[in-house]
Design brief:
2 copies of one chain form a homodimer. By secondary structure, chain A is an alpha/beta fold. Chain A contains 12 helices and 26 strands. In chain A, helix 1 runs parallel beside helix 8. At the A-B interface, helix 8, strand 22, strand 23 and helix 10 of A face helix 8, strand 22, strand 23 and helix 10 of B. Chains A, B: It comes from Aeromicrobium piscarium.
Chain lengths: 451, 451
């Protein structure tokens, strides 16, 4: 008799796992996926660019459609929601009926934080974490809103501010922190803030949203904690997301930061009862500190889906899992208009919380040789461990190339490289790409002097 | 009584060392630099872009002028050539008089390979390794040449072909190999070759230059080994360079590949007699194989100048040198028109020569998420060790970002990372920058399957 794997959630984590499992399990085994929506395997990270009109259709965001998955042998049930989990009996009740399973993979993703204030259910208030939500924002945009408020200034808030700018909308961002992108050092957020100001995007920093003004069930304004009232006929909610971990909670599993499901390196949450988790509903470990974090990102979800599949495969077929998830170094990248913004490793605030003894530097350089046309300013911030001299964190903001240069820093941090090692590292040099000392070189040399 | 350091050569390696030494040696010590030209500390790598008109003036290429160096306390003697070295007596004879020294740093760079065929001294035949040579080419361009032949298809040849294209010149490249950029795998060279063809640049592959046609002392054509004769009123020589290592040869020092000066990790060639070398005249070691190579690149020269200075400083003032040069991983980057081209680590040919048991893969992907506007093709080639599973070489060719992505691969190779480690590496992901599996991920996953 075969085994049945039930996967809840049909996006990155779930479908990566499902696709791997149908290929690798036996013919007698079953892979069932429950997805409450109608889409599968789409790039949620691409939603702001679709709303902005840069990506033409939401179909472009879909890597693999439900039909393609079904052709691959996945028993995919759309429009079905899990309603009850009996983890001891290994039975999941869904709106589509009861499903017993041998292994359950929770890949339910995360849901947008909705402010708990009056009027929050009015029309014209919409988050952007799914295709249907994107469709709703596009419907609102068809009504030609006069004033848009983007509530939140993290990655999605910043990307949506740019989207609104592209669409020629009068846009204001409200932010709980002084500058946008609180995951970054202030010197990075300040640059983004300057760019927002230069492009006439309003910005209310260090403010909390306290209420909505509405009329006839539609939003008309946003109230802030300093009594400011901003007119708004469209409010895009970008207060971040929280893991959808109800099933794990029902099973009595331990939850981590923001309620994310705690898993081992094989993405297993409960080996005895065959419960696994992957993607935005699960917690990740920082490779440097070992701390648990909630970092909803599509690339982690894909890797975790692959890891979970190999763990489930090994549990069913025997043997060691092919993959384990080693954790993350907190690499992020985004863009605001012409500004590229990236980070890896830990920030000053995180290092302080961890009690690490670090030094930090920031250096101003250019994107490539200063004499080569089009060179633009670029700032590199670097955090190093005073004792081990290891690089602990890097953040870059500036013109073209500022973003992807972070990959070399992420690799160096993963390898535990010291400042000294990086100074002599053989980075690529040619005038249209880099100065003779690359921006990372300049930063590690500055850190070396301080150490 | 102080020490005297004599440095021969006033570009990257020499002046980096001189600048560090005047700062760190005592007041009673002397730093004398002999430079046979009139320029110091300029970017030779920027010459093609100056000739192309992308960089306005050769002054832009100069990082620090002779006057600035003199203000810093360097005894700089321009227009002076070393004529005789008595290494045992520690006396260097120059066209500017005799100089005794305690330490001699040879930073004489490299000189262009000049074909030993008839007519090679005709007017209109010019290499491009120095500012005066660039000035000569600009003078030739003022005469509005009708047909230009670029002799050689390495980095400089390819860059000069692009420069000629920008200037609207009828251009033909001759190459000793089937495709341009022989340092790369054929699949990379092929892409460059296609781009040359698409832009009406003539290309004669697998050919040797056997002679020049001249008239009244001016070049009129180029003869190839298949009896082809190409009309040419300007021939740009780009057959590479050889180390200028005569001083080391006079001192009886061992020479390495192409006659490059062999040095230890402190850039010391002869500790007993106080002879050091840095930059394009010296050999470097490959960090993976330990093999000696001649890799004339400005970024190595800068690092080596810094290392040599710290070695000389320690020899004079006592103590351990602050720096050592760990060698290179053969990172290169260039551009041909819209194509970015980069490599790090070893090639198939080099791995074979070393007797390494490797597997290689090449994958076709896009510069960023395929659905995001402007995504262009990108090919990643990867070589991995069959036994250790370590990444040994990576080459990338394609649209924007293909170039600098190599820095992450160079870091991984330096750290000795395995294919398996890279699959789970936390590279930056956002649709305008990368797919959810970055191009390097895709390549290591393909290699993993093969292994």
């Amino acid at each position: 008799m075969g085994s049945r794997v039930v996967i809840v959630g049909g996006d990155a984590g779930g479908m990566t796992a499902a696709s791997a499992l149908v290929k690798r399990l036996g013919d007698e085994d079953e892979v069932v996926v429950i997805e409450r929506g109608e889409f599968t395997s789409y790039s949620a990270c691409g939603l702001p660019y679709w709303v902005a009109g840069e990506v033409e259709s939401c179909d472009d965001l879909i890597a693999r459609s439900p039909d393609e998955h079904r052709e691959n042998g996945i028993d995919l049930r759309l429009g079905a929601t899990a309603t009850l989990l009996d983890a001891d009996a290994k039975v999941l009740t869904t709106t589509d009926g009861e499903l017993s399973y041998d292994h359950l993979l929770i890949a339910t993703g995360a849901e947008p934080v909705w402010p708990e204030v009056e009027g929050a259910d009015a029309e014209g208030i919409a988050p952007i974490t799914t295709i249907p939500q994107g469709q709703e924002i596009l419907r609102q945009l068809d009504r030609k809103p006069e004033k848009v408020v983007v509530a939140g200034s993290g990655f999605i808030g910043t990307e949506m501010a740019e989207a609104c700018l592209r669409l020629g909308l009068d846009t204001t961002v409200i932010s709980a922190t002084e500058f946008p992108l609180a995951q970054f050092e202030n010197l990075v957020g300040e640059r983004v803030h300057e760019q927002m100001a230069a492009r006439q995007i309003g910005f209310h920093g260090n403010r909390r949203l306290t209420g909505f003004r509405t009329k006839d069930g539609r939003v008309t304004g946003v109230e802030l904690d300093d009594s400011t009232v901003l007119d708004a006929d469209l409010v895009i909610l970008a207060f971040g997301v929280t893991p959808r971990s109800e099933l794990a909670r029902e099973a009595g599993l331990p939850l981590g930061p923001k309620g994310a499901i705690v898993v081992d390196e094989y993405q297993c949450a409960d080996r005895a009862r065959g419960i696994w988790a992957a993607g935005d509903c699960s917690a990740v470990r920082d490779r440097q500190s070992g701390e648990l974090l909630h970092l909803p990102l599509g690339d982690h979800a894909n890797k975790q889906g692959m890891v979970a599949a190999s763990g489930i495969e090994a549990a069913i077929l025997g043997g060691e899992p092919e993959w384990s998830f080693p954790g993350v170094v907190q690499t992020f990248i985004t863009r605001f208009c012409d500004l590229e913004i990236s980070r890896t490793g830990v920030s000053t605030a995180e290092a302080e919380k961890l009690g690490w003894d670090t030094v930090s530097v920031s250096i101003d350089t250019t994107t490539w040789a200063g004499y080569y046309p089009g060179a633009e300013p670029m700032t590199v911030w670097l955090l190093a461990d005073r004792r081990t001299r290891q690089v602990r964190g890097v953040q870059i903001v500036g013109g073209p190339t500022a973003g992807l240069r972070i990959d070399a820093a992420a690799t160096a941090i993963t390898a535990g490289m010291r400042v000294d090692d990086l100074i002599m590292l053989d980075f690529a040099y040619a005038p249209p790409f880099s100065s003779v000392w690359s921006p990372l070189h300049v930063a590690v040399r500055a850190a070396y002097k301080l150490l």
